[in-house]
Design brief:
Elements: E1 3-4, H1 15-22, H2 35-47, E2 52-56, H3 59-70, E3 76-80, H4 84-87, H5 92-97, E4 100-104, H6 113-116, E5 130-136, H7 149-162, E6 165-170, H8 173-180, H9 184-188, E7 193-197, E8 208-212, H10 214-226, H11 235-247, H12 252-266, E9 281-285, H13 289-298, E10 301-302, E11 304-307, E12 310-314, H14 321-335
Parallel strand pairs: 1-10, 3-4, 3-5, 5-6, 6-7
Antiparallel strand pairs: 2-8, 7-8, 9-12, 11-12
Helix pairs in contact: 1-11, 2-11, 3-10, 12-14
Length: 337
């Protein structure tokens, strides 16, 4: 048995998803003529309470288009120090968009507006002007942290008062919705741009979207083409996303329950805190975790190594209860030694 807990990106399409892909009606998306892409974009825009959406091949491209829409070249983005847009997108904000970034840190990467407010630079001749704040929900390196709705609303109020924009990196926003019951539209309407990913917990093979205003979406399509994201008969991939939206959002609660069970089993070994597990991510603190991961892989359990003593486990569509049982058996044996 192979139990791959490195990421929720390792999922493979189900047989029903493959059938939906094979039967998709397609056209040329650069011409705006792919009906399946158009339907997916309309569905996601409606779900997130926005006017329009743009289908992109990757989450990083979606984020970078959004940042370029919100932050003029030479101006500034504020983001969490552990955020994906700062750490895992190859410096694209600066390299491709001319965006300067500064970061803030908060415990568990949970949003704290009080930490952001004093960082905002207003226009003046001496410092870079703050134009936008990026928020990640759920927060990957925070361990699947769900950002509190009340704090998101406070941030929206601050942004309105300061005349700055907000971007939501909602790659795992579906998990936040499943964990809290907060409607996706309630999250989405608080932001000027929202990116969501179809290829993580929802199990599609590829694809993300940006939801925003109709005017920004029109400009965003130009940026997508400039970044090499103009696609042709991509409705085959959009069909996987539409299937995922219809069938795989509510089942995310199963992943969350399995992650908690995994954390509760490992907690007596002193390597994680089960109370901190809100969604599908379990963070581990294990000395020489690379050796533990190597030994676990030999026994069919794959672990993500993030640092010398830091690792991560993610539950997802392709890991069932039997897989969690096997992972618990192997990991408790190894980290409990």
């Amino acid at each position: 048995m192979i139990v791959d807990l490195r990421s929720d990106t390792v999922t493979r399409p189900t047989s029903a998803m493959l059938e939906a892909m094979a039967s998709a009606e397609v056209g040329d998306d650069v011409y705006g003529e792919d009906p399946t892409v158009n339907a997916l974009e309309a569905e996601v825009a409606a779900l997130l309470g926005q006017e329009a959406a743009i289908f992109t091949p990757t989450g990083s491209m979606a984020n970078q288009i959004a940042l370029q829409l919100l932050v003029p070249r030479g101006d500034e983005l504020l983001a969490d120090a552990k955020s994906h847009v700062v750490n895992f997108e190859m410096g694209a904000a600066a390299a491709l968009g001319g965006v300067s970034s500064r970061t803030f840190s908060t415990p568990g990467s949970r949003l704290d507006v009080a930490a952001i407010e004093p960082m905002i630079n207003r226009p003046n001749p001496y410092v870079t002007t703050t134009r936008a704040v990026a928020v990640e929900n759920t927060h990957n390196m925070g361990g699947g942290t769900v950002q509190p709705l009340a704090e998101l609303k406070r941030l929206r109020g601050l942004a309105d008062a300061e005349g700055i924009a907000l971007h939501l990196d909602g790659a795992r926003l579906w998990n936040a919705h499943a964990a809290t019951g907060v409607p996706l539209s309630e999250y989405g309407r608080l932001f000027d741009t929202v990116s969501v990913c179809l290829s993580k917990g929802l199990g599609a093979p590829v694809g993300s979207l940006i939801a925003t205003s109709a005017e920004r979406a029109e400009r965003g399509r130009i940026l997508r083409k400039r970044l090499g994201g103009g696609m042709r008969q991509v409705g085959y991939l959009a069909a996987a996303g539409r299937y995922a939206l219809a069938n795989h959002i509510e089942r995310l609660a199963e992943d969350h329950a399995r992650a908690r069970r995994l954390a509760e089993a490992l907690e007596p070994c002193g390597v994680c805190g089960a109370a901190q597990v809100e969604t599908n991510i379990v963070l581990l603190r294990v000395p020489q975790i690379a050796k533990v991961a190597e030994a676990a892989a030999e026994r069919g359990v794959r672990v993500s190594v993030l640092g010398p003593d830091w690792g991560r486990l993610l539950t997802h569509l392709d890991v069932d209860d039997a897989g969690i049982d096997h992972a618990i058996e192997v990991l408790t044996d190894l980290v409990g030694e």
